[in-house]
């Protein structure tokens, strides 16, 4: 009796599936792409590798960003310029095109020590972006590898806060609701005072004047999900020594699928270069996801 009931249920499911296909149903609509930038944004790109994302953003421009001035984009790489071209042979011609277009390109920029780069000092951006961060240490022990990359993420989040544009918290459909505290009100007042004296005016958002945000993109599968980036941003661990500065606490504004189809010519490159790890199959089978804080 149970076997007959199971066979009937399977047959009914097959019939329903066939009928839905005939009606043109049963296929999920493609996910809606999210554009995290506005044409008025000043954008700082971290860890660019071969600079193909900067190229996609400023040379192969998405239609919604046609009015984005190339001078609003600063693209950086961790490596020295010569080392970058050795690791990524296609980078040199990409960088040449970016500079000719007016994009600022910087090398020797450590994401965890942005304050050490003199060209960045005293400046602020509306979006600070790090696509597919990785320590690049080649550690085979999974736990050590996860911890190493978590430390890099924490260092980045701690380092980039002075470089974020100041202003009210931006709104989004997925924004977590929270009341403005007295500290927030004081910060907004201080930001307004700085605006009046013109010390930061050149580098403020020329659009809404909203507070700058940080965008981190990773594969949304193990081992990257084990880095637990949202928790690191929202609930960072306490410093383990007196010499360590505490991490700021971020609010998650939203997360969304990173749709590579939006970025014509973008090619993800591994931290150690094109030929360092062979096929580079880690993280296959999942989606790319961006978290915006």
Fold and architecture overview:
Helix 2 links the parallel strand 1 and strand 2. This protein has seven helices and seven strands, in the order αβαβααββααβαββ. It has a seven-stranded mixed sheet, with helices on one face. Helix 2 (52-58) runs parallel beside helix 4 (91-101). The chain has helices spanning 2-22, 52-58, 81-87, 91-101, 142-160, 182-197, 229-234; strands spanning 43-46, 73-76, 104-106, 127-131, 213-219, 254-257, 288-292. Residues 173-207 and 275-280 have low confidence and may be disordered. The radius of gyration is 22 Å and the shape is globular. The chain has one domain: 3-Layer(aba) Sandwich (Rossmann fold). The chain is of the alpha/beta class and 293 residues long. One of its GO terms (biological process) is rRNA base methylation. This is 25S rRNA (uridine-N(3))-methyltransferase BMT5-like domain-containing protein. One of its GO terms (molecular function) is rRNA (uridine-N3-)-methyltransferase activity. Residues 180-190 have a biased composition (Basic and acidic residues). It comes from Piloderma croceum (strain F 1598).
**What name goes with the CATH superfamily?**
Vaccinia Virus protein VP39
Q: How many alpha or pi helices?
A: 7
Arithmetic mean pLDDT: 81
**How many domains would you count in the coordinates?**
1
Rg computed from alpha carbons, rounded to a whole number of angstroms: 22 Å
SS content category: alpha/beta
Quick recap:
With 293 residues, the protein is of the alpha/beta class. The protein has helices at residues 2-22, 52-58, 81-87, 91-101, 142-160, 182-197, 229-234, and strands at residues 43-46, 73-76, 104-106, 127-131, 213-219, 254-257, 288-292.
